[in-house]
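R.M. (postdoc): so does anyone remember the format we settled on? I'll just put the structure tokens first.
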């Protein structure tokens, strides 16, 4: 952990969401926190600045025009606070007005308004958490399911940080061994050093693969799985979307081509957030608008995590009807036979049996449980190990870049025209790149990009 010179400014913000609530909290952090508390708080006994940390007091906050609110004042002494600074939290009544009255009094007493994420940014800069843990705070706030919240908590407790630190330390050891070779000529280079560097590189490769493999899970947890409902016109795609959502979201008519553009909705299935797209029916269309909708459908098919491909069980269909998904992975495709309530005698079961289709009647809400179970099963296969700390897209890009430097270093060291000096430089660059993940290496642009996404008050 790094430390920096203490901050000279005291910051304050409302830490609770706007609107009606039972309680409203104003958070204050910085060197003047206790002075501000003494100036504004009125209660029995000694003033707040004379009280120990982890205590709370009942009283009132005084504003420009008398009492601003009746409050509970919580006292935190550095370093035992969220920011590792002296801090106070003023808990007053909820609603849109009471907290604002308290905040105005705090700002008038010498604090300034906090920027988005500034409390967590100070926690990072003061060495309480690393950058991975700081990002986990945002992930936890934005979590839409228990699975996403659990993964964020694992990251917040330092599980992902430990993985990155182990990788960093492994590369640092390789760099140290490699630097030691610079004092030897090629003929004098001890065989042990070359052997140890080669073995260590294999270990690092495994650590990279393990971390990169968690991105798929992180993508699903943070952004939600993309599911596309596709098929020919009038097979019941829009009816299925409405049935899954439990509301009339898409227009349903017997006219082919009613849906001409994708309709996107979000829901949670067994703890997974999914983004479901109802799409234009796949056929040879003469209408320019419908053709554009079909083109977009085909794009979604290639980008989606899961495809629900719907066939009409009330009509005869042939194997070529599966052409749009025949070249796609069966791991991401679920074949659904719809309209089983009016299934045709001419229905061809033979060629779809290899896909293990799900039989439903979207109009009657029949078979939806089986479909949801199939979706969860597919998500589980994509997800790998659930409920663990997982990397984000930022971490993934840093790992890819650092990995490229490692592979280049290995070539420079072990090739016929080996150059240990250049290889060592590549390893140092890999360390700098990995340092950006945890915050060992950082710059203002990086911090601004991360913390600007936080809410004010966190």
């Amino acid at each position: 952990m790094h430390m920096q010179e203490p901050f000279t400014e005291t910051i304050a913000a409302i830490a609770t969401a706007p609107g009606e609530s039972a309680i409203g909290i104003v958070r204050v952090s910085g060197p003047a926190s206790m002075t501000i508390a003494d100036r504004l708080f009125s209660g029995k006994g000694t003033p707040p600045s004379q009280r120990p940390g982890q205590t709370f007091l009942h009283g009132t906050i005084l504003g420009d025009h008398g009492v601003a609110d009746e409050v509970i004042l919580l006292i935190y002494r550095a370093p035992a606070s969220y920011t590792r600074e002296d801090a106070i939290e003023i808990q007053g009544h909820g609603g849109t007005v009471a907290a604002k009255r308290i905040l105005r009094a705090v700002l008038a007493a010498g604090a300034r308004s906090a920027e988005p994420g500034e409390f967590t940014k100070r926690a990072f800069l003061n060495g309480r958490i690393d950058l991975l843990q700081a990002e986990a705070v945002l992930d936890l706030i934005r979590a839409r399911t228990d699975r996403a919240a659990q993964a964020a908590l694992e990251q917040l407790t330092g599980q992902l940080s430990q993985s990155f630190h182990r990788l960093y330390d492994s590369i640092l050891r390789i760099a140290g061994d490699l630097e030691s070779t610079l004092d030897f000529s090629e003929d004098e280079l001890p065989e042990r050093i070359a052997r140890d560097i080669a073995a260590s590189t294999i270990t690092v490769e495994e650590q990279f693969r393990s971390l990169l493999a968690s991105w798929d899970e992180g993508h699903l947890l943070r952004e939600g799985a993309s599911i596309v409902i596709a098929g020919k016109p009038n097979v019941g795609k829009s009816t299925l979307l409405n049935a899954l959502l439990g509301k009339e979201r898409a227009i349903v008519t017997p006219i082919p081509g009613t849906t001409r553009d994708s309709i996107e909705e979000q829901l949670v299935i067994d703890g997974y957030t999914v983004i479901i797209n109802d799409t234009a029916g796949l056929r040879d269309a003469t209408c320019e608008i419908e053709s554009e909708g079909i083109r977009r459908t085909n794009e979604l098919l290639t980008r989606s995590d899961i495809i629900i491909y719907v066939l009409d069980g009330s009509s005869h269909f042939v194997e070529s009807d599966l052409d749009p998904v025949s070249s796609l992975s069966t791991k991401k495709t679920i074949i659904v036979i719809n309209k089983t309530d009016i299934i045709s005698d001419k229905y061809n079961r033979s060629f779809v049996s290899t896909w293990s289709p799900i039989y439903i009647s979207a109009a009657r809400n029949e078979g939806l449980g089986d479909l949801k179970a199939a979706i969860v099963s597919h998500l589980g296969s994509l997800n790998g190990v659930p409920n663990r700390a997982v990397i984000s897209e930022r971490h993934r890009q840093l790992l890819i870049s650092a990995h490229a430097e490692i592979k280049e270093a290995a070539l420079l060291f072990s090739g016929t025209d080996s150059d240990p000096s250049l290889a060592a430089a590549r390893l140092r660059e890999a360390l700098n790149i990995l340092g950006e993940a945890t915050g060992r290496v950082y710059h203002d642009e990086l911090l601004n990009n991360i913390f600007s996404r936080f809410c004010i008050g966190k």
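R.M.: ...and that's the designed sequence above, right after the tokens. Also worth knowing: The longest strand covers residues 66-76. The chain has three domains: 11-130, 136-214+391-439, 224-383.
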